[in-house]
Write a structure and sequence with these properties.
Blueprint (H helix, E strand, L loop, with lengths): L1 H28 L16 H14 L1 H5 L12 E4 L2 E4 L16 H10 L14 H4 L4 H13 L21 H10 L13 H11 L5 H4 L22 E3 L2 E3 L15 H10 L10 H8 L6 H11 L6 H4 L17 H7 L1 H4 L17 H4 L4 H9 L5 E2 L2 E2 L13 H11 L12 H10 L14
Antiparallel strand pairs: 1-2, 3-4, 5-6
Subcellular location: Cell membrane
Main location: membrane
Keywords: Cell membrane, Heme, Iron, Membrane, Metal-binding, Repeat, Signal
Length: 446
């Protein structure tokens, strides 16, 4: 009797396991629905292609899917992840190695849901959790641009370096179910058209949260819109600290006006800061090409995001007496830094950024301050003209201890409160980063 009961129990458990396995197989292999299932060919209407090119600028597709001197959108860029390196794919309309065989529905599923034809899941380095908010009209325009505005390039894709079994794609379907929304952007009736346009760009094509929102244990963005306090609250990424875009006066945009945000995104600089790090690529390839109305919308939306006084601390104000010339690092600052940034730390606004009150000198995260001192800054290319001024690299001129001392001096002078920098942190970044290129890097869309 006991044997029969045991056998029956095992049978039911086996059946339950088979059902669960079947449901899992169905879930991870299912194709997301697309509103374009009945549309196959891309329109070659010039106005639609032009709009798609603009959406590609908003989305900064070229930054990941192109390499300097190579065919636009032919892929190949290596991107480091905690699991191993992956490479951006060829998204030209080449039939064999690109996306030339994609229908509009295939394209939609890849862009907004991270699912390639055949059900293959894309790694979320592709920001489809943000692109999910793209409107149907923008997806249709983007498809028209890639099919008719981009030249096909026969360039085979490079396999990822993620080892087995971590390279299996089916678990990404479960990740998507937990962390990747599927709904397009829904306008907030309580807000005006300008705010909603800004929210759409920031949350959707601009995918600002990919860099500026902290991530959870599963590498998911902790919030995807203004309903979550971590949204755009600042995050450490690839050796840089992407600062808060909320109204934090020290570590965010609290001291910036809407026109100053527009100026920064349009020209790469304002009286508070100059673009550097990963933001240089975003400026060179994307934000400077945005329409003025869209930049104003972004500024309006960002200025509506409240800061967190508990996280940000007492608002910064300039303090002359705190610049101690006898402290460690003061001599290095006077001889290496002051000619551009001033003995008073105020810089030459809009050209040489101030270090007094700089985000990198106020945030507890010291990665950006270390990285730019070690490696210098990439050239800003505004309206096709490379910037004459750039931060030089000091990795060959200064030791880890000297860099730590001068940054500690900067981060404790003029009212700055970022705190001391450890030479070990400098050594760690020195070993994992490379000097910024002194040559202008221009990626073409056509």
């Amino acid at each position: 009797m006991n044997n029969r009961r045991f056998a029956r129990t095992v049978g039911w458990l086996a059946l339950a396991g088979l059902v669960a396995a079947a449901l899992l197989a169905w879930y991870v292999n299912r194709q997301p629905a697309s509103p374009f299932a009945q549309e196959a060919a891309a329109s070659n209407e010039p106005a639609l292609i032009s709009r798609g090119e603009y959406v590609a600028r908003l989305s900064d597709c070229v930054a990941c899917h192109s390499l300097p001197g190579k065919a636009p959108f032919a892929g190949g860029l290596e991107m480091a992840t905690p699991l191993g390196a992956i490479h951006a794919t060829n998204i030209t309309p080449d039939q064999g190695t690109g996306i030339g065989a994609y229908s509009l529905a295939d394209f939609d599923r890849a862009v907004r849901h991270g699912v390639a034809p055949g059900g293959r899941r894309l790694y979320p380095a592709m920001p489809y959790p943000s692109y999910a908010k793209l409107s149907d009209d923008d997806v249709r325009a983007l498809y028209a641009f890639f099919m008719h505005g981009v030249q096909p390039a026969k360039q085979p894709n490079i396999p990822s370096d993620i080892p087995w079994p971590l390279n299996m794609r089916w678990p990404i379907a479960l990740w998507n179910g937990l962390f990747a929304p599927t709904a397009t952007y829904a306008a907030k009736p309580s807000q005006d058209a300008l705010w909603n346009r800004g929210a759409y760009i920031v949350q959707g094509p601009g995918h600002c949260g990919s860099c500026h929102t902290p991530r959870g244990l599963a590498f998911n963005e902790k919030a995807l819109d203004e309903s979550g306090a971590p949204f755009l609250a600042g995050a450490l990424l690839d050796g840089w600290y992407a600062p808060s875009l909320r109204q934090d006066p020290n570590t965010g945009l609290g001291r910036w006006s809407e026109p100053e945000i527009v100026q920064f995104l349009k020209s790469g600089r304002n009286q508070h800061a100059v673009v550097y790090g990963s933001m240089t690529e975003a400026f060179n390839n994307s934000t400077q090409f945005m329409a003025d109305d869209d930049l104003a919308a972004i500024a309006r939306y960002l200025k509506s995001l409240p800061g967190d006084p508990q996280r940000d601390g007492t608002p910064w104000h300039y303090v002359t007496a705190e610049a101690r010339p006898d402290s460690p690092g003061a001599h290095t600052y006077a001889t290496r830094c002051a000619s551009c940034h001033g003995l008073d730390g105020k810089g030459q606004p809009e050209w040489m950024p101030p270090l007094a009150g700089a985000t990198s000198a106020l945030t507890k995260e010291d990665a950006s301050a270390i990285n730019i001192t070690l490696n210098g800054s990439q050239r800003i290319v505004a309206a096709g003209v490379p910037d004459a001024y750039r931060m030089p690299a000091f990795r060959e001129q200064l030791t880890d201890a000297q860099i730590a001392e001068v940054l500690s001096f900067v981060r404790s002078s003029w009212g700055n409160s970022g705190g001391a920098v450890d030479a070990k942190a400098v050594a760690k970044l020195r070993g994992h980063t490379d000097p910024a290129s002194s040559s202008p890097i221009i990626l073409h869309m056509r």
